[in-house]
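Subject: sequence -> structure tokens, single chain

Hey, anyone have a minute? Need the predicted structure for the following. Not urgent.
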Amino acid sequence: QVQLVESGGGLVQAGGSLRLSCVASGRIFGIDAAGWYRQAPGKQREWVAHITRVGISNYVDSVKGRFTISRDNGKNTVYLQMNSLKPEDTAVYYCNADLQVGLLGGTDNYWGQGTQVTVSS
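Reply:
Had a minute. Here:
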């Protein structure tokens, strides 16, 4: 069964840091592009960060300079390092990735189940 599993969320004080992990497992040949999204209570899910297969990253303006997305292809894992956290970063964080499911490079898109990040003031 192909799946994405996030971990690393929790409760942290404002100014603190957390590192989220997203591990892809199952019959896959690797991760193509991947991204992190978040959804705060009562709000729509929003895109946070994206990383290409070759490691080029992009961020929503509100997290630039504070969050860093990275990947370890050998471990089929994508990370989100979050520093200088603010109460407005509180949300459920979701991993999304195009997983290589075919030998010829075919990909399917998957979502993780989400991990809660709560930042107290």
